[in-house]
Design brief:
There is one protein chain. The protein has 157 residues and is mainly alpha-helical. It contains 6 helices and 4 strands. It has 2 domains: 47 residues, no CATH class; 81 residues, DNA polymerase, domain 1. The strands form 2 sheets. The chain has a two-stranded antiparallel ribbon with strand order 1-2. The longest helix is centred in the first third of the chain and has 21 residues. The radius of gyration is 32 Å and the shape is elongated.
Length: 157
Amino acid sequence: MNRVIKQIGQSGFGKKIGALAVTGFLIGSALLGSAQPVAAVGLGGEITSGVALLANAGGRELRNSIDDKMATEYGSKIDVNNTNIAAFRKYRGLYPTIAGKVVSNAPYDAVEDILEIPGLRQVEKDRIQQNLDVFTISAPDPALVEGADRFNNGVYK
């Protein structure tokens, strides 16, 4: 193999190919630079790249409504209109049966409304009554209740 390479390298053809390759590399580097991100022209003619720009509306602090909700009682109690079924695991006797019924019958106007769930047995009502202080209520938030995320949010431990 080395012998073939030496023969090609000594011929005029091999020198021309080598010179062409080096020239192409140098021109390409000069025009394109080295290790530049790829830019593509979208359908509207604008150039987009892999850089994300975030706009701040009028200099106001950008807030995430879910983070705001976590700073309230919602972060420490079970919000009967928004909390995922897995949060009920922290409280003995509420998971999975009672939790499933509470989540399935939401939304509620008041925490006490969960005691009126159709088909709730007396023992389940008693268990809810014993734990009524761990519940809170807020308006349903689409970011928390849309889809089936209240039953399976894809977080596995």
